[in-house]
Design a protein that fits this description.
- Pfam families: YjdM (PF03831), Zn_Ribbon_YjdM (PF08274).
- This is Zinc ribbon domain-containing protein YjdM.
- It comes from Ralstonia chuxiongensis.
- It is a single chain.
- The chain is mainly beta.
- It folds into 2 domains: about 45 residues, Single Sheet (N-terminal domain of TfIIb), CATH 2.20.25.10; about 70 residues, Roll (SH3 type barrels), CATH 2.30.30.40.
- It is about 10% helix and about 30% strand.
- The chain is built from 1 helix and 13 strands.
- The strands form 5 sheets. A 3-stranded antiparallel β-sheet has the order 1-2-3. A 3-stranded antiparallel β-sheet has the order 9-6-13, with no helix packed on it. It has a 3-stranded antiparallel β-sheet with strand order 10-11-12, with no helix packed on it.
- A hairpin with a 5-residue loop joins strand 4 and strand 5.
- The chain is elongated, with a radius of gyration of 20 Å.
- The model has no long low-confidence stretch (mean pLDDT about 85).
Amino acid sequence: MSTIPACPQCASENTYQDGDLYICPDCAHEWNPSAQQEEVEAEAVIKDANGNPLNAGDSATLVKDLKLKGGSGTLKAGTKVKNIRLVPGDHPIDCKIDGVSYLLKPEFLKKA
């Protein structure tokens, strides 16, 4: 017999299965665990400006000058970024350049 997972939204264990869906009666959340797994796998692939997949710990190079918001300065094209980290969000690359932490979009980087 398979175990029914807890609700991913409210963590209630009062969930039940209805066909392919799991339903939480406490918060009325419905989800399909196989569809969620496919979404996670699809989101996990982050590609650089050339289409190469980026992984945590990779080194990359900036392909374009980037103006800093809220500051007076730019990150110059050709700057090497070491040991990148992948984070969720619309700026999925977390890195440090000269000791300052930045969140960058992958289309401004190429894998080194």
